[in-house]
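Translate sequence into structure tokens.
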Amino acid sequence: MRTPHKHAELIKAWADGAEIEFYDTRFNEHRWKLTGPFPYWQPEVEFRIKPEPKPDLRLFYWVSDHLVQCSSKIHMHNLALTFDGDTGVLKSAEVI
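Result follows.
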């Protein structure tokens, strides 16, 4: 019996419509990128199913000249901060 291709499961997922990303250490980009419509499936390249994005995190604060309080619920707060769910980077700050 022949040994299955290194990426056999991902090839099957791609054939069923999954979005596939690749990471090739031969290039200095060091990030996952979407494959084109016809991936090459080289053994030295890493592949994965594109992960679902994580939801953003929105936190509410009450800020005054002598007090800062944080909560995940809006109730008597005057500042809302939104962080990217994947990177944790601040996306927006809103005075409410």
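Note: The mean pLDDT is 86.
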